């Protein structure tokens, strides 16, 4: 398969060096990488605060933006007499 033993050993040595270099590179990158990450998502509402508060405090309105309700629109919901919480 190979012409001689030296060629085979030379190829194995190159493979080991490349593998060791890749491992060393990964360790160096891991050493300098941040340990904690933070992802934030926001939205800007072009409405007055009181109008937004009055909208979201009504339980029936929460179906319009609750992602779990949107995933199951056939879900049955029952509301009592009190459908909003008093302003604090």
Q: Can you describe what's shown?
A:
The model has no long low-confidence stretch (mean pLDDT 85). This protein has 88 residues and is mainly alpha-helical. The chain is built from 3 helices and no strands. The longest helix is centred in the N-terminal third of the chain and has 28 residues. It is 47% helix and 0% strand.
pLDDT < 50 stretches? none
Largest sheet: none
Whole-number mean pLDDT = 85
How many helix segments? 3
Q: Radius of gyration, Cα only, in angstroms?
A: 31 Å
Q: Element order, helices and strands?
A: HHH
Termini Cα gap:
83 Å
Based on helices, strands and strand pairing, what is the structural class? mainly alpha
**What's the overall geometry?**
elongated
- Total beta-strand segments: 0
What share of residues are in beta strands? under 5%
Helix content: 40-55%
Question: How would you sum up this structure in a few lines?
Answer:
This protein is mainly α and 88 residues long. The chain is built from 3 helices and no strands.
Task: Please supply descriptive tags for the structure shown above.
0% strand; single chain; elongated
Layout of helices and strands, plus pairs?
Layout: H1 5-32, H2 49-56, H3 67-71
